[in-house]
Predict the structure.
Amino acid sequence: MALAVGMRVLTRALLRPWARGLRVAPGRTGPAAGGGDGMRCFGSPRVLVEPDPAAGVAVVKMRNPPVNSLSLEFLTELLISLEKLENDKTFHGIILTSDCPGIFSAGLDLTEMCGRKPEHYVEYWKAVQETWLRFYLSNLVVIAAINGVSPAGGCLLSLTCDYRVLANNPKYTIGLNETLLGIVAPFWFKDTMVNTIGHRATERALQLGLLFPPAEALRVGVVDQVVPEDQVQSTARSVMAQWLAIPDHARQLTKTLMRKPTADRLLTERDADIQTFVRFICRDSVQKSLHAYLEKLKQKKG
Ligand SMILES: CCCCCCCCCCCC/C=C/CC(=O)SCCNC(=O)CCNC(=O)[C@H](O)C(C)(C)COP(=O)(O)OP(=O)(O)OC[C@H]1O[C@@H](n2cnc3c(N)ncnc32)[C@H](O)[C@@H]1OP(=O)(O)O
């Protein structure tokens, strides 16, 4: 039932004009990350998929410059790539990483949440919910190779993965910093964090909008491993090999057992959550905070 609802949303997304226009990335032969039988890279303008069929693994590279902000188009392309890999029996695991130097993802695209019509906010929030659900419940092993800064929605995306490897660079902070923008992390962002680092640590991190540098991220458990920057991809691959050595059906059922109650809460409250988001984001005070935050980002350069 839940999956059917998800598929309907995705299908609707695929039918949108800009989604219909998505092209398969012109062929480079893969895999770029070692091994394999030379299957071609595929993907879309903002998502590059480097398949390694011999290993049963695909590297999914986010490339929505300058900062991999999670726009509606980008989220849809990510979902399409995930679905394609899930439907291909060759693949058992994906490594999610970034093609934008120094940035894993700047989180939700603030321009999707500023100065738009309520109908747009509904459409955008549905895509955010769908991305979380599909990644959180994916049957594939999903490992995040975090090679850059990862605030808010970027952190959330990595928290949907089964394992997080972070590059040891003090600039690469990670966390749910929504309060610093004058906004509130929805209950399912919070639940995902609680499931990862526990209640007390989440309470502190969310209220203070903490962005953890690598050593602290490791200590609190936001990430599973911190490694030198040039070893992030190779570490993700070794971890993947360990996870893929487990009988797949047993691992998948265990993942579902662990995650379904959290996902079910959103699935049963999905419409109410959209209404809450739209009401909240349409508030004058929230729009002012977001505009001011975006302005501050732009002025940083000048
Ligand atoms: C009763 C109440 C109940 C309430 C219930 C809840 C209801 C729902 C509430 C709503 C929740 C919404 C949740 C949102 C989660 C999010 O993800 S919000 C986004 C948070 N992201 C950030 O804070 C990151 C912001 N960006 C940065 O800090 C930096 O850009 C960077 C560290 C990522 C990179 O720095 P640098 O390399 O120096 O690049 P910049 O020059 O800063 O940026 C380049 C360019 O990109 C634009 N940009 C940056 N981030 C974003 C973004 N997230 N979205 C859109 N655009 C972004 C930036 O403005 C620059 O643009 P220009 O080149 O100047 O045009």
Notes: The domain at 42-300 is CATH 3.90.226.10 (2-enoyl-CoA Hydratase; Chain A, domain 1).
